[in-house]
Design brief:
Layout (H helix, E strand, L loop, with lengths): L1 H8 L4 E8 H4 L12 E9 L8 E8 L6 E7 L1 E2 L6 H4 L7 E4 H7 L7 E9 L8 E7 L5
Parallel strand pairs: 2-5
Antiparallel strand pairs: 1-2, 2-6, 3-4, 3-7, 7-8
Length: 142
């Protein structure tokens, strides 16, 4: 019985990463893609409806050199919301956009594995414990 209540209180959150560019958003297939125009976009989703729970996530991305890092706070989106790449380029608290140059610097020219730390909190300040986790990812410029 105790195990069941623990599972029911868990909130699944998925971290999604997409590599895109301005030319992809503009649907400009004739333009030659330059890697310096690439943008890495991170966002988080949950199957819970916004009226049930509003979550915020604090993300920190670093490579082998922890002094070189980037961080942000995002709202966790409902999974049913659109993830059209055109939305990635607008200023929106639901997406974290990192330029090719930022990722290149953090990853030591794409040689180092990146570590993503994630902390989840309830935006409505309802009783809930904060969760924190860390995971390694590898991004490539190709």
């Amino acid at each position: 019985m105790e195990q069941s209540s623990f599972v029911e209180s868990d909130v699944p959150v998925v971290v999604l990463i997409c590599k895109t560019s301005a030319s992809a958003v503009l649907k400009d297939k004739l333009r030659h893609e330059n890697t310096r125009d690439q943008v890495f976009v991170l966002w988080l989703v949950t199957p819970h409806a916004p009226h049930q729970l509003q979550l915020n996530a604090t993300l920190r991305l670093c490579g082998r050199n922890a002094a070189v890092q980037a961080s942000t706070t995002l709202a966790v989106r409902p999974v049913t919301d659109s993830h059209d790449s055109c939305e990635f380029m607008t200023v929106d608290t639901n997406y974290w956009r990192l330029s090719h140059g930022q990722i290149r610097k953090i990853s030591n020219d794409f040689r180092d594995e990146l570590h993503l730390e994630l902390g989840i909190t309830d935006a409505l300040h309802l009783p809930c414990s904060a969760v924190s986790l860390s995971s390694a990812i590898r991004l490539s410029s190709a």
